[in-house]
Amino acid sequence: MSDLRPTSPAPASQVAALLRSAPFGLVIVGTDGTIAAANLQASRLLGPSPPRELPGLYLADLLADPGDAPLLDEMLRTAATGSRTRRAFHVRSGDIFRVVELTCWSDPAVQTNAQVLVMLSEAAESDQIELLRELVRRNPAGMAQLDSDLSVVHINHRWTEITGQPIEAAAGQGWLDVVDVDGRDDFVDALSHALERSEGLRGRLRVRTPSGALRWIEVSTTPLDSPGGALLSFEDTTEGQDAVRRADELSRVLEATRDLVAILGADGTNLVWLNEMFGEFLPEAALEQPFVTFLDDYSEATYVSTALPAVRDSGTWKGELTIVRNDGTTVPMAVMLVAHLDDSDQTEAISLVARDLSDLRAAQARVADSETRMAALVQHATDLAVLVDRTGTVVYASPAVERVLGHPPGTLDGIDVLELVHPDDLTLAYDTIATVLDTEGESRTVQLRIAHGDASYRHLDIIANNMLDNTAVEGIVLNAKDVTDQVEAAAQLAAHTYRDDLTGLPNRTLLLERMRESLRRARERRLLVGVLFLDLDRFNVVNESLGHAAGDDLLNEVASRIEGVIRPGDTVARLGGDEFAVIVGDMLRRGDAVVAARRIRKAVTQPISIGSDHTVVTTSIGIAIADGSEEPEDLLRDADTALRRAKDKGRDVAVVFDDHLRDQAVRRLEVENKLRSAIERDALEVHFQPVLNARTGKLAGAEALVRIRDEDGTLVMPGEFIDIAEDSGLIAILGHQVLVKSIRQAALWTRQHVPGQEPMSVAVNVSARQLNDPSYPEQIRAELETAGLAPTQLSLELTESALIDGNPVTEQSLQQLHDLGVHIGLDDFGTGFSSLAYLKRFPISFLKVDRSFVNGLGTDEDDSAIVRATIALAHGLNLRVVAEGVETEDQLALLRGLDCNLVQGFLFSKPVPAEDFQSFLGMRWRS
């Protein structure tokens, strides 16, 4: 019996060797047209991309003519069946067009996944010439082939459509020689220089056709590698240029008016566009109806029989029309119509500019028909109308004066209108009236504070119109609208922008502005500026024990105490949480800032009563001092660095920023940059420390511990960068990368099925920021599912500080993870606040005894008692216990005697890379 087997595809190394050794361009392509591999010769023919960048691209996308794509696809499908196919195609190689011959065939010896081999070579000159001729002929856009002398070899029908010149007139000529072109010589010189450098060129030319019409042509050229010369693309963009010109004209009209503006169609019937002010007069559907729909009967007749004929004959018309508003009321308007013409002097649009004459007509009627008739006209108006003479004396105020300003009608008559203006606004009011008085028909808008009858002031938007020369008015008409509510709302918004909502103190934004001003004064006067950055020690204890409302009361009291001891002119701000900052400006001595810090610490540490409770808090303070040359952000950062140092020294102290702290800050910045770089380069390394069953000695799992591999190869330990990751906001992405690496590694170990090794579990540290992300449980579920690791094989370790804020999202995340099957552990138990309420409130599975207590086990009575109590407490609550930091056999023996569940430490191994951890699988510690 013969042994017939299909030929196996060549290994990757054989395919790579074929690509390297081929003396011609060679690509391997799937039947769907996707490039799988290519050699250097192919990349030179297909484009500027190196071979490694071609895989994944579609071979058809590299063709110059998209219309050739179906032909190429058919060639690939035919080659996949065993036939050899060959054809020349036009390829854009960077900025150069090239004609390349493609030969396609399939070879079972190298074929994988129905791939096809494609040989590429320079096409024969006859093929190149024919392909170029065909490309130019069938291109729907304007296209021509130019030789190296810029003479036309081939040109298509668009040339005749655009220029009016026959194709025959251009053949063999310089392509611009047969038309009148502005800037011809400059463009030809630029094109020649571009071809000498094998570069393309784009430009815009204006040509005159035999009929005399001017046309704009957009031109681009691409050098031809062979047979030389260039491929020229051109298109008529005249309409676009004309549209821009017309838009500029209309824009000037719109910008020139302060009133109502509309655009109508060429026949003046339908509205095409309204400005916002006009839109307030007409309904939303106005653009769908004829303009005359919104005129009263008389105005409709005037518009149709007089206005439109006039604007068609002379291009403009001025007159009055009455518009019917949304609510049915009518508004008299002074109207101007302007016709806009196209290049053939035909009307293509009509613009309408209108000015509301309501106030003018009202003022004319009031004066002409006596004060009684005038009052009847405006008694129901919601806004206030006031008439003053040229001396500023009030002649008349509408009945709305009582509603707006609380003055009964008639009580303001005869007084100087400036007597009603707020003293701080008098100059603005006087200047406005003076400007209006100087020019006939002048109008000005101003916002002023005007006295109310209850002795308060109201904010009014006022329009002042000069109508002195109108014999029916002979005065200044003031139309006023009460905008007090809007102004106060804006002020409240500004307060939120610059003030802390809880304490009313300046926030960070206002603090930085005042710091900038203090530094400016320090530079000019050669003084010093001090910035104090402080927070409350163990403020979280108050929040946790007395509640957030009590915490807010405490912050308000502290804010009040700090304000009570700083100098007038200094600033105290709340930056968020329990953090405050103080600017001590105009200092003669550096010690002034230290004195201010001492006063603040003394004031804050006095007992504070919160409801029926009494508490004492202390504050740590960082001090930075500058002479005015620093930026506010840098000075605040230096004070923050000093505050960190104060915390490290044991709290309730003040530390002044110095060169040593500056070096530390620089080091922190260096480490932060290394951390960012490691995250971007995926250079975080996860080491694993074995976790053993204390009773049997068998390997139970591992704790994942992150390291940074620096660019020089050295390892940066977590003690140098974890706090920085927390402060810089990088902890979440760092934690996610460690989680993903750890889960995948544990899944790999589990799949290895090492004899004697139970399914591996892995413990990963998690930060409060991660738990505060509502999507965190779903991220873990998805990663476990992707890696194929059971949720019960994952443990998440968090510190007590992650639970202090009582964030409901944290509690919800932990419950979802527990329901998923993930184990939740409390790390470093006993070193924090050790609230037993956590063990009841949150779904904790195990406690982890801190190494500081394990270190004293058997030698220190207190440490031994803490370890015994922790294990007893955990077992009483059905929780497992993990002891870390086990370094001696005596410690291990004592922990076994206390029935500790799991142990880890240097006695068994330090944290090691995953490849070194492999040797621990299936191990059993025997002491």
How would you portray this structure in words?
This protein is α+β, with helices and mostly antiparallel strands and 927 residues long. The chain has six domains: 12-123, PAS domain (Beta-Lactamase, 2-Layer Sandwich), CATH 3.30.450.20; 136-236, PAS domain (Beta-Lactamase, 2-Layer Sandwich), CATH 3.30.450; 273-356, Beta-Lactamase (2-Layer Sandwich), CATH 3.30.450; 359-482, Beta-Lactamase (2-Layer Sandwich); 499-657, 2-Layer Sandwich (Alpha-Beta Plaits), CATH 3.30.70; 672-914, TIM Barrel. Helix content is 39%, strand content 26%. The protein is built from 31 helices and 38 strands. The strands form seven sheets. The chain has an eight-stranded mixed beta barrel with strand order 29-30-32-33-34-35-36-37, surrounded by four helices. A six-stranded antiparallel beta sheet has the order 7-6-11-10-9-8. α18 (548-565) crosses α19, α21 (659-681) crosses α22 and α25 packs parallel to α26. The radius of gyration is 42 Å and the shape is flat. 32% of the residues are buried.
